[in-house]
Amino acid sequence: MRTFERTMAPHLRPAASIPRLMGEVLIALLPATVAYVWYFGPGLLLNMAVATAVAVAAEAAVLAVRNREVMPRLQDLTAVLSAVLLAFALPPLTPWWVTATGAAFAIVFAKQLYGGLGYNPFNPAMAGYVVLLISFPAEMTHWLPPSGLGLAPERADLFASLTYLFTSHLPNPLGWDSIGGATPLDEVKTQLALARTVDEIRSTALYGDFGARGWEWVNNYVALGGIWLIYRRVIQWHIPVAVLLGLIVPATVFYLVEPGNYPPPAFHVFSGAVMLGAFFIATDPVSAATTGRGRLIYGAGIGVLTYVIRTWGGYPDGLAFAVLLMNMAVPAIDRYTVPRVYGHGR
Amino acid sequence: MSGDKRLWQFHGGMPLPGHKRVSTSIPLEATGIPEMLIHPLSQHVGSPAEAIVAPGERVLRGQPVARATGYVGSPVHAGSSGTVVEVGSRPVPHPSGLSADCVVIRTDGEDAPFTGYDALTNYETLNAPALRARVRECGIVGLGGAAFPTSVKLNVGVGLKSLILNAAECEPYISCDDMLLRHRAADVVAGAQVMLHALEIRHCCIAIEEDKPEALEALTARVAEIGDTRIEVVTMPAIYPAGGERQLIQVLTGHEVPADGIPADIGYLCQNVGTAAAVASAVLRGEPLISRVVTVTGSGVRQPRNLDVRLGTPIAKVIDACGGYTESARHLIMGGAMMGFPLNHDDMPLIKATNCLFVASAEDVRPRPPEQPCIRCGECARACPASLLPQQLQWSTRAEDFDEVEALNLYDCIECGCCDLVCPSHIPLTQYFRYAKTEIWNRRQERARSDHARNRFEARKTRIDLEEAERKRRLEAKTRALGKASQDEDTRKAMIDEVMKRVRERKTPDSAEDTRE
Ligand code: SF4
Ligand code: SF4
Fold it and tell me: Which of A18, A19, A32, A79 is nearest to A279 (CA)?
């Protein structure tokens, strides 16, 4: 008689794993990272470094305090991804303590205090970003215009970026007046408030072929990465498509009704954090709805809310708020989109 | 016959590596007769058979050694001629790992046949009950793995549209239906004809996955040869678990079997092709079910192959017929890589339900990676052929919220394992669901038991109360009555505590693994 070890069905093993999924998402962000650095200088990379270091340290610290295994969690790359997404949302020149505060808040409060990976109702990166938006309004609006397009007399090089990162002062003779600029969304909001028409605003140098200059290309590369993720089946199409439609539909309606007062849909889609939000942030599985139908509702909600906040709200880009608001709606969405089970009446 | 029949899709499922070629390279052959044959009396759900032979008695090949008891039951026949040496408890292949009563026969090598069943070659002149009686007395059960008595399944009312013969064989590694069709397509088709007659219907669909070209060819050739237009062969894509009865019906007809019903409710009856061949033997040749085709596969056997084995043959002997174990043999699984269950050792007999013996190495069946928290990715729900929400089910199972688990329709889970295979967090979902099912069942039993106890208690209490009232009236002894009532309340509390303790004890993870059905 020969004896055998037990194994419970199914005896085959899954191919996917959390680190693999997160790794693919990080890789998909590479083209956008390169484009971003090309247009806005090396600041993004510095922000990523600060955010990642703080996020990983915070995750390790809280896990140790909570008496949980540290290594498996750090290896799953979820903290790294949150940090990278936060860095993407920040202005290219951000003082390190601002970035660090955002990353620490994202991990400690938005993720770990809710129970860690899988239990956080809010998207950590967006929670961290919103906290910064409220706490450091000045730093969060110091944007750089895309370089090489003649929008600013001078540009911030690595030295300038590092100096600002550590001291929050630009090295002489640079100043915000010479290198800085508002984001296109900001600009549109301000100008519309000054009773300019969209056409007048669009004829300025800030605008590119279909969206905001520079931004449109960064957004293109973000979308490219996102489509790659769909192709690789790391994410599903539902959320990105719903977010974009949720934004495009109201934008088109208002643009058609009053083209002078409302920017065209293409401008909305290719400006700000929309692509990043649609493909990389709203698709964070933990804080999103789970079923196909639920995800369509969830994504559409984000798109519509983004448009509403951009158009009538107090902030130029409403994506982060839209995501957090829809995060709150997830339990309800999940409850009402339970699929019909096989063999139970149609 | 057509390959371009309209097909439907079922929700979820997935293509899986088949690993079928491993065991189909050499032709089907019959193994020899072992020295000992062990016939368990209970081989499926329903009531166990009752032994009708005693130690010392001589039996012939195919002679009944145990008779069916109850409607959902089936007799057991001697696998070869010889002498009964024991009727007693032996280890049997069952998920519980427990032993069960068996008839043990020492064979004499003569293989002398029992002649109690005539060949019913005139079956077309017989009526349905007569044919069902033959199928029943010959011990035919479903050979796809569940071993449900075939005569019971054949006893459907009117309104049946179609007989579906299942040759999908979607589980990785299993190839016994494939090999059976390659070698005995004629028997399968004959079985289909017999069943069509017994069911009094005029359509049979034999469904086969497209990854079995040889079997398909043999089958279509045979159907063309006899020119029976009632029989249609349909090929379908190889998507696990298309061979599941409910999924198969959905693929072929687009209809869903009601959750609380059976396929016959919507006009379909599914039988495995192996069962059809067994029906043909029983009716046309008067041969009871004493052997079956079994796939022996995996890196743990020297020569993986398909064998026609006498039921009751010890598994160790079956493995010997395949050249024995390799060094890497580590797990012995009865059934396929997705739904098979583990056997602790090989000193048990092959039974009617044994479609596959999967001897796995550490490569074939890798250790389970550690479980991570669920990230709500929803992949499990996308993969679930029953359209359940495995993620929410596991959540509620962990929280021991079994009311919610039932509300999420746990009982529609077919334990196919698809959700497990896509979970990036490596959560043993299927295991959770088996645990939840057992747990709910146990609780129901407990509740029934305590309800029973309570009813008795209350009846007694009422009686006592009445007596007390009598006495009160007569003796006006009010105080004694009250004292008695509070004492009873204490007994009841103690009983509830006891029940709760037992429930808690059962929650250990080990028991979740061991109690599968
Ligand atoms: S597949 Fe696993 S991680 Fe994803 S939702 Fe289902 S249980 Fe959770
Ligand atoms: S095991 Fe159950 S829950 Fe999981 S996929 Fe299969 S039917 Fe669905």
Answer: A32
* ipTM field: 0.89
Structure confidence by residue, pLDDT tens digits, B32-83: 999 999 999 998 888 899 999 999 999 999 999 999 998 899 999 999 999 9
Grade residue B364 by pLDDT with cuts at 50, 70 and 90. Answer: very high
B445 and B401 co-located in one domain? yes
pLDDT at B495 over 70: no
pLDDT, tens digit, 9 for 90 and up, residues B112-162: 999 989 999 999 999 999 999 999 999 999 998 888 999 999 998 778 999
Q: Which residue has the tokens 């890589």?
A: B337
Assess if residue B87 is contained within a domain.
no
Does B423 contact ligand 2 (Cβ within 6 A)?
A: no
Ligand nearest to the CA of A286: 1
Q: A13 C-alpha to center of ligand 1: Å? A: 14
Does any domain span residue B124? Answer: yes
Q: Which residues of B touch A342 (CB under 8 A)?
A: 10-11, 246, 250, 256, 259, 385-387, 412
How distant, in Å, are the alpha carbons of A175, B217, B228, B321 from that of B223? 87, 10, 6, 33
Q: B488: domain CATH number?
A: 1.10.1060
- Which residue minimizes the CA distance to atom 4 of ligand 1? B377
Contact assignment for A286 to B389 by CB distance below 8 Å: no
User: Is B456 touching ligand 1 by the criterion CB < 6 Å?
Assistant: no
- The answer to whether the bond into B304 is cis (omega within 30° of 0) is no
Between strands B29-30 and B305-310, the pairing is parallel
Q: Containing domain of residue B141, as a range?
A: 119-358
Q: Looking at the structure, tell me whether residues B155 and B231 fall in a common domain.
A: yes
Do B445 and B311 share a structural domain?
no
- Residue whose entry in the numeric block shows the structure tokens 């990642």: A52
Ligand 1, atom 7, residue with closest C-alpha: B391
Ligand 2: does its nearest atom lie under 6 Å from the Cβ of B430? Answer: yes
Q: Residues with Cβ < 8 Å from B496, sequence gap 6 or more?
A: B450
In this prediction, what percent of chain B has a pLDDT beyond 90? 76
Mean pLDDT over B370-395 rounds to 94
Residue B343's CB is within 10 A of a number of other CB atoms, namely: 23
Q: Is B244 in the pocket of ligand 2 (CB under 6 A)?
A: no
User: Measured between CA atoms, how close is A339 to chain B, in angstroms?
Assistant: 7
